[in-house]
Automatic annotation (TrEMBL):
Protein source organism: Rhodobacter calidifons
Stated name of the protein: NAD(+) diphosphatase
Swiss-Prot/TrEMBL cofactor(s): Mg(2+); Zn(2+)
Similarity section: Belongs to the Nudix hydrolase family. NudC subfamily.
Enzyme Commission numbers on file: 3.6.1.22
Classification via Pfam families: NUDIX, NUDIX-like, Zn_ribbon_NUD
Domain Nudix hydrolase: 177-300
InterPro entries in the record: NAD-cap_RNA_hydrolase_NudC (IPR050241), NADH_PPase-like_N (IPR015375), NudC-like_C (IPR049734), Nudix_hydrolase (IPR020476), NUDIX_hydrolase-like_dom_sf (IPR015797), NUDIX_hydrolase_CS (IPR020084), NUDIX_hydrolase_dom (IPR000086), Znr_NADH_PPase (IPR015376)
Keywords attached to this entry: Hydrolase, Magnesium, Metal-binding, NAD
Catalyzed chemical reaction(s): a 5'-end NAD(+)-phospho-ribonucleoside in mRNA + H2O = a 5'-end phospho-adenosine-phospho-ribonucleoside in mRNA + beta-nicotinamide D-ribonucleotide + 2 H(+)
Enzyme superclass (EC): hydrolase
GO MF annotation: an example: hydrolase activity
Length: 316
């Protein structure tokens, strides 16, 4: 798939400068001249639909944790910092649970011009470099927040290597950021594609089937297993299409295609609320907003990317 890396959060060629992560003094100099993206409980600081970077000494970072080094952006050092310990003032818009959180939290040190916003709401407006930086920042910040204790001995661990490692001072164990591999499948049979719907999704939204790769399993086996488990459909050979870092919280979506060998759907209600075969003509209607039942997956998601390119015959 020649256009694979044009997916949202696709590679922009960020210079991640792995050697600099080991240079404590060099990181200090980089921070003094670089820019920091504050992240609050998974939400990056956004201004006019784009990430809002601040200098290392900015007052908004007063309660932030140690900065995480992201890389060099055209020579400018970029960092991220977790501001989750800050509590919005009374009366601030509250975080809303669910598929998408539309609330925005504004910090008094920034004012009204910027706020902490859900990345899903702005991801399609970001250019490739912004998207890679913000995805990396969100994933790393959340990993540090959820892995503060050593999984070997239980003692508090410490950030190291510019944020790309945690070390345990008690037992010496080293821990590294994790990315969970997830397969997401374009399952076709003739002129139709298999779509599913998970409980809790917005009304009418359907997408490609997806699931986590299990230990000891190949990507190909995961594709066939997930489709069989969720819909009872048997699939043939599997081919790679594209991948997408998906920082919700920290997955790598591995897009694959396969041809179904059977077409009778036997739904697993614990996995899916609904599944159906959708023709190309129906999918065109859905993307145009004219289908009576189906709404397509969110723009920016790899499912949307794959389905649009399948319709345009651009997958080879």
């Amino acid at each position: 798939m020649r256009i694979a890396e044009t997916v949202t959060f696709g590679g922009s060629g960020l210079d991640r400068q792995a050697p600099l992560r080991r240079d404590v003094e060099g990181l200090g100099r980089a921070l003094a001249t670089g820019l920091v993206l504050p992240v609050w409980r998974g939400k990056p600081l956004i201004r006019d639909g784009r990430p809002h970077w601040v200098a290392a000494g900015h007052p908004v970072l007063a309660l932030a944790g140690p900065p995480v080094f992201l890389g060099l952006d055209a020579g400018t050092p970029r960092f991220a910092a977790d501001l989750s310990d800050w509590s919005p003032e009374a009366g601030a818009e509250a975080v809303q649970a669910g598929f998408f959180d539309p609330s925005v939290q504004r910090h008094p040190a920034i004012g009204e011009e910027a706020g902490f916003a859900e990345l899903r709401g702005v991801m399609t407006a970001l250019d490739p470099r912004e998207a890679e930086l913000v995805a990396t920042a969100k994933a790393l910040v959340q990993w540090h927040r959820s892995h503060r204790f050593c999984s070997t001995c239980g003692a508090p661990s410490e950030m190291a290597q510019g944020g790309w490692q945690r070390t345990c001072p008690a037992c010496g164990a080293q821990h590294f950021p994790r990315t969970d591999p997830v397969v997401i499948m374009l399952v076709t049979r003739g002129n139709s594609v298999l779509l599913g719907r998970s409980p809790g999704w917005p009304e009418g939204m359907f997408s490609l089937l997806a699931g986590f790769v299990e230990p000891g399993e190949t990507i190909e086996a995961a594709v066939r297993r997930e489709v069989m488990e969720e819909t009872g459909i048997t699939c043939g050979p599997v081919g790679y299409l594209a991948s997408q870092p998906w920082p919700f919280p920290a997955s790598l979506m591995i897009g694959a295609r396969t041809e179904a060998l059977t077409d009778e759907i036997r739904l697993d209600p614990e996995e899916l609320e609904a599944a159906l075969w959708v023709s190309r003509e129906e999918l065109v209607q859905a993307f145009a907003g004219r289908h009576p039942v189906i709404r397509p997956s969110r723009k920016g998601a790899i499912a949307h990317f794959i389905l649009r390119n399948w319709l345009a015959d651009r997958l080879d």
